[in-house]
Design brief:
alpha+beta, eight-stranded mixed beta sheet
Length: 165
């Protein structure tokens, strides 16, 4: 049994809407003690992009899913770059997402090039959270050539997931 392209596109749209809805929910329902609304939404994106226990193709097949790689992690793994507009308590906010290779990095900025050759430059400061498989680390652990996912707002990197560390 094969799945038609319109069905795949419809499923992708529904899942994409679910990801955006989840981000919006996370942004609006952030506890008062959280550092920032966008930071919490960015954490959700980074968490969804990280492989978790019991994930992978075997798990999807065991559950009977036919749209391999079309869950949240699958969509983020295919992401090159884009923007989302989130509804927050302070009004609409736009976040940028970019997955790619670090072209250059300094203590105050990071340049990332996506697989489609889109180049983004983002500022880094002490509030930028950098996560690796081992947990939170400093921005100084990012190196040229690393594969990263950047979540930014207004040109400032909020969260960076370094997949090579």
């Amino acid at each position: 049994m094969s799945i038609s392209k319109p069905a795949i596109w419809a499923a992708t749209g529904i899942i994409g809407a679910g990801v955006a809805g989840g981000l919006t929910y996370a942004a609006v329902s952030t506890p008062a003690g959280a550092s920032s609304t966008l930071g919490a939404a960015a954490d959700d994106v980074v968490s969804a992009a990280q492989p978790g226990p019991g994930t992978g193709p075997g798990r999807r097949q065991a559950q009977g899913h036919r749209l391999r790689g079309m869950d949240r992690r699958g969509l983020l793994a295919r992401l090159e770059h884009g923007q989302l507009t989130l509804q927050t308590k302070q009004g609409d906010r736009t976040i940028d997402l970019q997955r790619g290779t670090v072209s250059s990095v300094s203590p105050t900025s990071i340049s990332v090039t996506s697989p489609d050759k889109f180049a983004g430059v983002y500022t880094i400061d002490s509030s930028t959270k950098v996560r690796t498989r081992d947990g939170l680390v400093s921005a100084s652990s990012i190196h040229q050539g690393d594969q990263v996912l950047v979540v930014a707002s207004g040109g400032k990197a909020l969260r960076i997931l370094d997949r090579d560390r």
